[in-house]
Every structure is written in C-alpha cells, then in structure tokens.
Design goal:
The protein is mostly helical and 494 residues long. Helices cover 72% and strands 0% of the residues.
C-alpha cells in the first residue's frame, strides 16, 4: 500500500514538474496570477500532454520506457532553467498588475466550500474502491494502456491487430499513455490505483473554473460556479461514479473514459482565450494555444475545438496588432502594438510550433500505418445532402438533452441561458463572444457528425450524446458565471 502510494506520488510529481517548467517559460513574470492551487492544477493538465507525448516519441524511437528514462530529461531541463534564472537570461520582473481584490466570507461562500469539499472527498473515496466497469474504459482506454505497458510502448502490431479493432486504434493517445505512465511507476498493471487519475482530474477541473471566475468576477461567483459544477451528475459519473444509474444511462460509473479530461482542456483553453481577449497577456495566448493542441491529442473531438480556438486566437491577435476598425467596435484596446509585427509573428510561430508538436506525430503515424476513422468516409457532399433530413432529430435531441435532462446535466444550461437573457450586452465583449462561438461551433460539428454517421443515428445519439454534452458543460458554466456574475460585481471593469 505504501509503495503504491509512493509510486503514484512520483508519477504525479513528474506530471506537475513538466507542466510547471512550461509555465516558467511562457509566464516568467507571473502575469497570469495563477495562485498556488490553479498553477498546480494547470501544471498537472499540461504535464499530461507533455509526458504522454514523450512516451509516444520514446515508442517510435525505440527508447526504453522506465521511470528513470522518462524523468531524466525533465531533471536536466530543470537544472538548465535554474541556471538560466540564476544568470538573469529570463526576465523575472514581478507582475505590475494590481492584485485581485480580497472578498469577504459569508454564508454563500461557506456553503459552497462545504459542497466542493464533500464532492472532492466522495470522488476520491468512491472511485478508488471499485474496479473499472465502464465499457469504453475497459475496451479502449485502459485496454490500450495495458497493451502499451506490456509491449513497452506504442506498437503497430497491437494497433493493427484486427482482433482489437473495437478499441478504435485511430483515437489519440494522451489518456492511455498517461495511464501507462502510472503503470510504469507502479511496476505493474493496477487499474484501481490508476483510477486516482480521475478524481485528480475532477479537482483540477474545479480549480481551473474557480480561478477563471474569481479572476474575472469575484470569489463568491467563483465558489458558487464551482459548487454547481461539482454537483453536476454528468461530471460525477466520470470523475468518481455513482452506485445507481441516472439520466437514462446504462450505468452510473463512467470512470476511465477520456471525456472528463477533454472537458478540462476545453474549459481551460476557453478560459485563457477569454483572458487574452480581456487583458492581452502573451502568456494567456501561449497557454491557450498549448491547451488547444493537447486537446487534439486527447480525443478526435479536440481537433475541431483546436481549429475553432486557433482561429479565434489569431483573430484576436490580428485585432490587437493592427487595431483594425472592427476591433475598435468590439475590442477594448488600451495598449497595442499597431504596426509592430513582432508580437504577431511570434504568436503565429508559437501556435504553429505547438500544433505541429502535438498533432503532426500522431497524424503521421496514422497515415503511415493506415489507421483511419469511420467518420471521414462519410464526410462528403453526397452523404451530407442525403442525410440532411436527420437535422431536426439531431438538433431536437441536443436541445432536449441540454434543457430537460436535469437529473444528468443539472441546471448548467439554464444558467447559461439566463445569463444571456439578463446580460445580452455581455456578447459585446470579445472574450464572452469568443467563448460562445467556441460552444456553438463545437456543437455544430457534433451535429454534423450525427448527420453523416454510417450508424443508426438514433442509437448513436442515445449512446454518445451525454459524453459530447460533458465536453462543453464546464465551459457553459464558465460562460454563465463570467457573463452573469458581472451583474453582481459591476464595479470590476472587464
């Protein structure tokens, strides 16, 4: 038991180390004002991307995967960064931004903290007492992690084995490789121990949402939004599981899927896009770009979100650089570099670099070994026009899921709708508008997938829509809190 705990602590320490090292590079002055909890949550999130990608590179290059070989490069980078900081090659000036106001504590804040604490305790206790039971967890994510651990890495022999075709060999590998890293430090396949990854994701999700709302609105709104998110059954069944079935689903336990972590990448990337639109902080731009790229490395759905997010980030970057006339209508530019192409070029180069880093290797690997997706076959005008009759069913099913299945999604979507009704002018703010475009754009793509799917569309909706909604549920709560919470603390200027 003690050795298992030490091994897991070591595994998570490397997730944190790799992610925190990246944050030191992109935000050396601390202008993101992350705070102790948020910086570790974000470091963990980024670390999942970097460590899993490292394991994939080791597999392709034939480098043996062990605790030592994976850790050593990060220790070298840490030493180099310490030397760089010591000799002053990186600007370590403290942030000149004013500190966030300190809000008082009242009954609302106290009750919210109690709710969050209880949910976190439940997720940690319940998820680690039961084995993996979800179908996709067994047949896709944990199955691949076991195979990679036994084979010593990602191998085409396993991915091309027709007897394992049901595990979707074309799916990105962040989740199975992250679980494989836990198995590696443990020295064995231990599903129950590896499930600790999911309550940690849950804690990181709550921390990230709290950070964005507190920074943009205030502590009370942040705690209430975080409490509402923690009480969402759809989140809980993926973070810890429930002993009963809910919302018409076949099970109450979906721990081990990749959808919770994808929702975390979505809301974190969206939050930093919002902060870049609001403050123009270069660190927010860079972190958002990396999170978008890692999201594409998590699930295929993340690729579309990355493309939409990248377009929005580039639009904001162009508006800030050139002070376009359109920007003057919707963008509050207090300080900009009109005519200075250096910020534009550096932003473009950084985004291209991280997108290539996280997307190109797996895409190249799939092309080389012929790992295709069943959905790309139907992506043509002929299929779209012949199946367009599905559109009313698809849109109706999505809306019904959002607004009538309260036992599954809580009141998140009603809160979003209410915030837009009472503060429709919030859409004039580019950050809020960008988040709405992310949300609507992603749902539009999901609708397109249901239209072109070769499977029975009613069956496909009944077996997958709940997970697609999960991808965007935290983002919906974030938008509702940012847009609606401003009415409570109207003295804060956006």
């Amino acid at each position: 038991m003690i050795s298992t705990l030490i091994s897991l602590l070591f595994a998570f320490a490397l997730f944190l180390l790799s992610g925190r090292l990246f944050l030191l590079l992109v935000d050396p002055a601390g202008e993101l004002r992350l705070g102790a909890i948020a910086i570790n949550a974000l470091g963990f999130l980024l670390g999942l991307g970097f460590i899993s990608l490292q394991l994939f590179f080791y597999s392709v290059l034939g480098i043996g995967i062990s605790s030592v070989t994976v850790t050593l490069p990060w220790l070298i980078i840490l030493c180099l960064l310490l030397l760089v900081y010591k000799f002053g090659f990186i600007d370590r000036r403290a942030s000149t931004l004013a500190p966030l106001p300190r809000d008082g504590w009242g009954p609302v804040e106290i009750v919210s903290v109690i709710i969050i604490a209880v949910q976190l305790f439940y997720s940690l206790l319940y998820s680690t007492t039961l084995p993996v039971t979800g179908w996709d967890a067994w047949s896709i994510w944990f199955l691949k992690a076991r195979a990679f651990f036994v084979d010593g890495g990602v191998t085409p022999a396993f991915l091309l084995d027709a007897s394992y075709g049901y595990d979707h060999p074309d799916y990105p590998l962040l989740v199975p490789l992250s679980i494989m890293w836990l198995f590696t430090t443990l020295g064995e396949v231990n599903d129950i121990a590896a499930k600790i990854l999911y309550p940690v994701q849950f804690a990181a999700l709550l921390s990230i949402v709290y950070y964005f709302v507190k920074r943009s609105v205030g502590r009370r709104a942040a705690l209430v939004a975080t409490a509402v998110l923690s009480l969402s059954p759809l989140v809980i069944i993926h973070a810890a599981g429930l002993p009963v079935k809910i919302g018409g689903l076949y099970s109450g336990d979906f721990v081990g899927y990749a959808d919770l972590i994808l929702s975390l990448f979505f809301v974190a990337a969206g939050g930093f896009i919002y902060l870049y639109a609001k403050d123009g902080c270069p660190g927010a731009f860079r972190v958002a770009a990396v999170l978008l790229a890692i999201g594409a490395w998590t699930k295929n759905e993340g690729l579309v979100f990355a493309m939409i997010g990248a377009l929005l980030l580039l639009l904001l970057l162009f508006m800030r650089t050139f002070s376009l006339r359109l920007a003057l209508l919707v963008y509050d530019i207090r300080e900009h570099e009109s005519g200075d192409l250096r910020p534009l070029l550096s932003g473009l180069l950084f985004m291209v670099a991280v997108f290539v880093l996280f997307m190109a290797p797996w895409a190249t690997y799939k092309v080389h070994f012929g790992l295709g997706s069943e959905y790309t076959v139907g992506l043509n005008i002929g299929t779209l026009t012949s199946n367009i009759v599905r559109l009313p069913l698809v849109v109706g099913s999505i809306l019904a899921h959002l607004f009538t299945r309260i036992s599954l999604v809580n009141v998140a979507w009603w809160l979003l709708l209410l915030s837009l009704i009472v503060n429709i002018r919030g859409l004039q703010r580019p950050g809020v508008l960008a988040l709405i475009l992310l949300l609507v754009g992603q749902f539009a793509v999901y609708a397109l997938v249901y239209i072109i799917t070769p499977a029975d569309v009613s069956w496909q909706i009944s077996t997958s829509l709940d997970r697609l909604v999960l991808h965007l549920l935290p983002l919906a709560i974030l938008i509702a809190a940012i847009n609606g919470g401003k009415l409570v603390e109207c003295d804060r200027v956006d």
